């Protein structure tokens, strides 16, 4: 199909003999916002890193924008943007220097990259620090720089791994609306996060990964109808078989407050 943007076929990955992804099959179409969720260690970041070409010793097939990424070389990366969970960022550069550099790496003209970066940072109320070193930025300010850096080249597919980390409530609203507007323009968004109420609101399709396997795949309404639970958080708890949060919390508190540890 022409509008198929991503296609994973029997994607399998193991580290030191331990299977992390167990045969993932997933087709993603233009304009979809995929909420990619799952417990810690389920394999979400591993899937993202494979699609981004950062891990290559996987089995199965990964097609992005109609091409098998193991054969097509790196040019597909010109059309994708990535906000990593833990980013290496060149702290000693100013926001202007860093973003202009990233823009140039993506093939933009230096002046175009600089202007576009400035205009985007203005929208995030950060014009006053355009010429400040990133090392002086707060966590949320660094996150905004990362988000801007992933969008400078107007990518068709955007991968975001916990992108709202450190952002204040106003900025979260901007990012949510921005992702929706980008999807309406035909961009495809692959959004991995643990913040269930945001995933519930922005995704038009939710994919739940558990132990390297897709355990649920559908719109929030579909998942809700299947599980008869109210929120995505409770659907997540049910589908991952977890109902012991109260007991676990109490055990933690009893260990913390136990005075026989010496
Ligand atoms: N470089 C590595 N070497 C060995 N094992 C790894 C490596 N990277 C990831 N793993 C293992 O693969 C599994 C999946 O990790 P991954 O980071 O993909 O999970 P995740 O779903 O993104 O988790 P989280 O929600 O905690 O970010 C985990 O068991 C992890 O320990």
Automatic annotation (TrEMBL):
One of its GO terms (molecular function) is ATP hydrolysis activity. It comes from the Bacteria. SUPFAM superfamilies: P-loop containing nucleoside triphosphate hydrolases. This is ABC transporter ATP-binding protein. The keyword Transit peptide does not apply. PROSITE patterns: ABC_TRANSPORTER_1 (PS00211), ABC_TRANSPORTER_2 (PS50893). Pfam families: ABC_tran. Keywords: ATP-binding, Nucleotide-binding. SMART domains: AAA. Residues 6-236 form the ABC transporter domain. It comes from Ornithinibacillus halotolerans.
